[in-house]
Amino acid sequence: MTAADRWVVGAALALVASLYVWSWGGSLGSDAGGSDAAAGVVAEVVVAGHPGETIDLGRDGEVEVQGRMGPSRLLVQDGRVRFTASPCRNKQCIRSGWLAHEGDFAACLPNGVAVEVLGPERGLDAINY
Amino acid sequence: MQARRPERIAGRQAPSAAVLLLGALVLTACGARPTPVHEFQFFAMGTLVEVTLANVENAPAQEARRAIEGLFRRAEGDWDAWRPGALARFNRRLAGGRPFAVDADLLPLLQGSSELSRRSHGLFDPAIGRLTELWGFHRDESRGRPPEPEAIAALMRRRPAMSDLRWNGREVQGTNPAVQIDLGAYAKGYAVDLAIAHLRGVRIANALVNAGGDLRAIGRRGERPWRIGIRRPRSAGVLATLELGEDESVLTSGDYERFFMYDGKRYHHILDPRTGYPAQGAMAATVISRGAAEGDAAATALVVAGPSEWQAVAHDMGIAQAMLIDGLGRIHLTEALRPRLRFTIDPERGIPMDMDPKP
User: Is the dihedral of CA A43, A46, B41, B186 positive or negative?
Assistant: First the structure.
């Protein structure tokens, strides 16, 4: 295992752990509910080097994911998600603003982090851009 | 929805085995056997690559996954002018001015892109690598300010163009040292085409390969056609959706993919080979074609062509289905594409223009 391998595995574990705590922490045994508008709407977060994870947009909170350059932060609020911080220079990911509808997509390509809203509405298989 | 993204559903509920089991029961209870769909993603060629395979068992799907990721990894090393690979070596030898034999792997990309450049009236021109470099668009992170006008003018006086490559069979000779080949507007589409060819070769007939929005689909997604959303320029949302035929590619080029703002003005990566500056007059062009490589080149050419010339260029490149969004946000469509798109906004009114992103 090279240093890079260890780093990627470490980043993957950190992502899973943060998603676990964020998704399930504090709501065990109670129905945390969340916004009705966002019921069933999830966003997929892809980080370079490991498979996509989905996050529930019905639960407000913050997620930090480790990309290639460093941490990117995502904020979930009122059934929407957006980048709030990323170590890139141009901040196009943050400028993309809120993602709320199926197919909405933003990425920090320098950092290797992408977020896409999935949903049952139109059943899109891919977004062309 | 359960049938749509089974792998993702499982991933989301992974914390509890009981939930997984329940999920499996619910899936079973849906009645009809759900289409086995495999999705995987990876970052390559500076973008996110997503592959979806339908009606494929697990073992061949995993094999295809390894093969396609390997293909994109080789492509990103070999076809990027700014990495130490085949294209960088090609550019060095081209600058030397002596005839040389081109690598067999690189040859079809260079010949294919030369032909498309000619048909595009020179508006798609991979020979302007030095210009791309001058503007800093060859890097993930742009330089944040335009180059000196004198530097652009000096380069433009040397008129680098694909027609400066003198071909003799598979031998080529550079006749203009200002030429540096940049396949950025072609190689991703070409890699998508290779991935689709590989899948066909291993008898996977229903697949979608999407490399940062450059996509090609074959077959169907189970009982229905593949459904695509076209992103609204300069926003995160969807402008229109369409269903694809048995083998079609959808390619968009836009001024929002790679750009920087300087002094309140947008400088984007689609450079006009005639002026040396970012193309004016169009913010995006979408093309539907058979192959992704030709669509990639055509979408770039149409943005450069702008509202006055785009239809003529599309015609000469053999593209019947195309959409152009001009600099004012107005939507122009070819008659062949119009009935296929379902817009999320009123296409007659165009897209709102208050959307230039603010930090």
Answer: positive
